[in-house]
Amino acid sequence: MLEIMVVILIIGLLATVVVPNIGRMLFKGNEAKVLADITNLENAVQMYKAEKGRWPQTLDDLAEVDETGFSFIQGDSLPFDPWEQDYFYEVADAGGKLLIGTYGADMSPGGEGENADITNQSMRERN
């Protein structure tokens, strides 16, 4: 009986160390995916502007295949963020600034940590 209690105690101690680290690693993985997706989408938007002379009205414009079989993104469709939501896109203003991002895990504007918005502009502010 004492051995079982010792084993349960050890498992409990290990769980208190391992579980918080797993959560942090999942957050880092989600953040890395978002950063890569936003960078790829921003590059595709810039290529679209260079080729067509105008900004795409929506990100869906990037996935349209032309008569030669070319689209501005790889694959058949746009990526989703790690929470299975579409990335948002605001058409560039007269100054040429466009906004691409995700609202984070809470799927609403604002927030901190995993709930924080991540955009192409906030990525530049971090660096």
Describe this entry's structure for a reader.
- This protein is mostly helical and 127 residues long.
- The chain has a single domain, classed as 2-Layer Sandwich (Glycoprotein, Type 4 Pilin), CATH 3.30.700.10.
- Helices cover 49% and strands 7% of the residues.
- The chain has 3 helices and 3 strands.
- It has a 3-stranded antiparallel β-sheet with strand order 1-2-3.
- Strand 1 and strand 2 form a beta hairpin.
- The protein is elongated and about 75 Å long.
- The N and C termini lie far apart (56 Å).
Q: How many strands, which pairing sense, and closed or not: the largest β-sheet? A: 3 strands, antiparallel
Number of strands: 3
Q: In the residues, how many domains can be counted?
A: 1
What is the helix tally?
A: 3
| CATH superfamily placement | Glycoprotein, Type 4 Pilin
Percentage of β-strand residues: 5-15%
Radius of gyration: 21 Å
- Euclidean distance between termini CA atoms: 56 Å
Average predicted local confidence, pLDDT? 85
Order of helices and strands: HHEEEH
The CATH architecture can be given as 2-Layer Sandwich
> CATH fold name, please?
Glycoprotein, Type 4 Pilin
Structural class: mainly alpha
Sheet with most strands: strand arrangement: 1-2-3
**Helix content percent band:** 40-55%
Shape: elongated
